[in-house]
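Dear support,

We are seeing what looks like truncated structure output for some complexes. This example has three components. We would appreciate it if you could run it in full and send us the complete token output so we can diff it against ours.
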Amino acid sequence: MHGLVFDVAHLLAGSLVLISFIELYQDRLFALINIFAAHALVLALSVAWQAYVQEAPHLYITAAIALVFKAVVIPMALHRIIVRLGIHREIETVVGIGPAMLLGMGLVALSMVVMLRVTAEADPLAREDLAFSLSVVLLGLLLMVTRRNAVSQVIGFMSLENGLVLAATGAKGMPLVVEISVAFSVLIAFIVIGIFLFRIRERFDTVDVQALDRFRGERK
Amino acid sequence: MAVIGHFALQGVQMMLVLLLAPLLTGFVRKMKARLLRRQGPPLFQPYRDLIRLMRKEVVLAENASWLFRFTPYFVFATTWIAASLVPTFQSGLLFSWSTDLIALIALLGSARFFLALAGLDVGTSFGGIGSSREVMIASLAEPAMLMIVFTLALIVGSTQLSTMSAFMNSPAVGLRVSLGLGLIALVIVAIAENARIPVDNPATHLELTMVHEAMVLEYSGRHLALIELSAYLKLLLYVSLIACLFAPWGISATTVEPKTFVIGLAAYAVKLAAMSTFLAMFETAVAKMRVFRVPEFLGAALMMGLLATLLRFVSGSF
Amino acid sequence: MPGVALSLVGILLAAAAIAIPTSGTRMARPLVYGICLATTLCLMTVAATALIGKSATPSSLALPAGLPQLGAHFRIDALSAFFLFVVNLGATAASLFAIGYGRHEETPERVLPFYPAYLAGMNLVVLADDAFVFLVAWEFMSLTSWALVIANHKESDNLRAGYIYLLMASFGTLALLLAFGLLAGAEGNYTFAVIRSAPPSAGIAALILILAIIGTGSKAGLVPLHAWLPLAHPAAPSHVSALMSGVMTKVAVYGFIRIVFEMLGPPGWWWSVVVLVCGGATATMGVLYALMQRDLKRVLAYSTIENIGIIFSALGLSLAFKSEGLASIAALALTAGLFHIFNHSLFKSLLFFGSGAVLNATGERDMEKLGGLIHSMPQTAFVFLVGCMAISALPPLNGFVSEWLAFQAILLSPQLPLWSLKLIIPAVGALLALSAALAAACFVRAFGITFLGRARTPAASRAQETDRFSLTAMLILAALCLVAGILPGVFIDLLAATVQFLVGGRMPPQTGIEWLSIIPIAEGRSSYNGLLVFLFMIISGTLAAIAIHRLASDKVRRGPAWDCGYPDPSPLTQYSAASFGQPIRRVFGTIVFRAQEVGEMPPPASTAPARLTVKLSDLIWDTFYAPISGGITFAAEQLNRLQFLTIRRYLTLVFAALVFLLLVLAIWQ
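Here is the complete output from our reference environment:
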């Protein structure tokens, strides 16, 4: 039932979950961006393996896009943004590292239970990949929720997106059109967020989103 | 005849680990020095240190009790037994079924229990620092190790080390996620248990950075020699454990044939050299952590072990 | 069989009666405790013969006492024989200990009459075969132990402890009363024989399970019903503390097993989940609390809570396997639980006896005031060390064997198809591993601060060794710990009858395995040999010692402590209990207890000392007990107003009640 194919796919998907855990754990921004680059690299490897296994050459292009954009271009750009914004300080997490890891474990357990129950009759390789992808999505959301810094929330959002790509490639037959549109929407979102971050910084001198609360309208 | 042969093999294993342990530490120290572009001490320096210490007179504190004098012998005996039961060049030795991996970890736990007590015996604050930090590290490293054991046992279907080693050597094992997680967690636990950088500095002279060294600060002479030898044995044990579980090539089931014996020994020597090189490079590249970041480091190992166990419970193909 | 046991219990009650008038005299103490010793020894033999004997058939006895239609039923079967053995083993050891320890009792008239009655009560609970006798004996056991808890009534802490104990005990009995009421059903047939033959329906069984967990769990010390245990167990005299922790908690577990494993029929799918969660949480919380305490007896009481958690986890595993029909694996988990019950009664009694010896010798229970006792009390220190090693689950002693068996059962759990179990069992396994490691830390701290180092107060330096009786009792228990660790196969086979009775399967027979190993499942899967480990340790240790002394050097010189060149003569500079626990407090305590360390530094040039205060908050007390007691106090205060009404208002009350009842009569059809 399992051969090398299964095992390598699981290994790569499991490494993706592990890297998401490591992202939860980081409190320095440069380290977080580097870990995210590793996340995207493993995603590219995983998509490439799926391309090899499913004999779907268009997935190689997806893997290349993930590698170039998410593992190289976006981390470099984020590096530059951070240096320009001047945030070299520690990230304050809202929840401590210990509880965040325990919550992460709970989320992984939850996604395992849900996915493996719901897809009981599907292909075993796809099922377990889906379970891992849901874990990555939930861990990305957890990262967004437990951070105050806007840049780390952006990274959480990108990790979430990586999880969705993993899910889409795991299920056979994802056309290239979908991936191109997804990639471009990511790029647009990134540009918008980048501009947004600069504007926030210019107006309020900080990218701490809690500070934004001060400037909401008066509540009656 | 065969029984005598098996007895002899077990005896060879026991003497082999005892004689190789200082050499392993000497090799690691030499590699670290070379990586720092120093000459470093000679390879056989740990042997000379041990012999020198054994010949010296023991200086005991006035209020040291019988427990202080008993501990080095106890720690040495348990660590030696534990190290002799890990397959090195052959698995399935005569008494290997008397302790499985869980009992092995508990044996090391007994040694640690007495060492922590000995740290408190003389009633100095350094001993207290060492013992309290050691039990904190142990309170996270032991559960992490047990989770790794669970993962392996759930894959292999047994907690016996020889069975595990044989299974890992067979084609049935596959390249599993939980094994990868287990390997990383085992390396982290091995670093913590052997008091290596980044958890503890084995060469430090600063009391505030000591854990293991602070517990044994009051020991001298032959007692100190036994404790140092036990520390070397423990490093050899963990390196052999990682080798027999995750790199079991060359280990065969016990036979008295000279050919398998030689192949096993050669493979073992290669594995020891490779892992000591990795350890030396890792220790040189990484800085020691603050004491209260160690629980996060070990907590990560515990989480990985728990995740691996959970994956095995959830599905048989993980 | 039950007749013999009952007559021995009768002798215990007679001893209690004799003790009432004579407890002031000098002879009373050895007489009463000696009678208890002999009687419990005989009861132990009765239990052993029932357990080992080929007569696996239970024997019962009905007496025409008690309720008119009911009578009193007593029975000895495999389950009650095992618990009878455990209870009386603990009682024998405690009676032997008390012959020496009781010399220092200030008010023997408050202890001597109640002690045999307490033993009688515990035995009667185990022997009971109908609900009435069970509950009466249960209450009798609670009341006599309450009297013993408030024996040292001069300290107000003890009175408060007794009050809370009485409240929780009554609450537990209420839950058990309801449980037995539901079990008896509409016909109201309270004999266990009838209850066994007609198991309740699934819904009622669920309710009975919850009530049984609340009722027996509060007596055993399950979190969150544990709050009375660390207050009451230390307050009693040490031999009674040993009995309460080592034996009475097991009687509560007996109640749980009797109801849930025997009378409720086939287990439902979710029952094991509840028990496992309770067990895992209790184990972790118990040991974390223990690490924060400075009173030696309170550390031991919290450690009891931890071990009860381990026992309940093993029982939960057994229920899970039983509900899937995997009888042999259920037998493995149940054997682990029962063996741990036996082991815990041994080493917990030993540890409490040790703390009693220390209390007698120094007058202190606070670890921060002790230290250096290994020099003045060497034999007590040695047996206490054996107890600490056993409770930390270190080979080759017995605590390790039961933990090992529990882990082997966990490793067989992926076969269970239930999803919730697939998630909970790894979590419980991790919690058990964590609590085992923390328990080792806790007992390094307890032994190290109390016995090692230098004496911190003059009281500690004036300590003297304890008397022969106490030492003999402790030595016997320590020897039993070693024997149970070296020859576990013997004990596993002795438990086979009980396990077969409860889950319908048993572990493979362990006698006759070569070298006396134990093989719980199958040959290639796992095995352990305590005897070989012990022998190897002794041989290699002695060989090393001889080799080094002959070939190298055996010279020893005494000098001052090195201490890195800065030895400090004040014994207060050595580590204290709070400082030893500081790393663990920082790692775990900040989350679980909201631990905070507040340092007050004096201003510069002031000679006042700096002060470090550790603030801990007991979250379970704050969220659970405090609101309930606040609510009860509020309700009571409101109702108190009824005391201060005028005569006219009282008359109005009576008039209103009359009118109300007339209205009811008028409207009701």
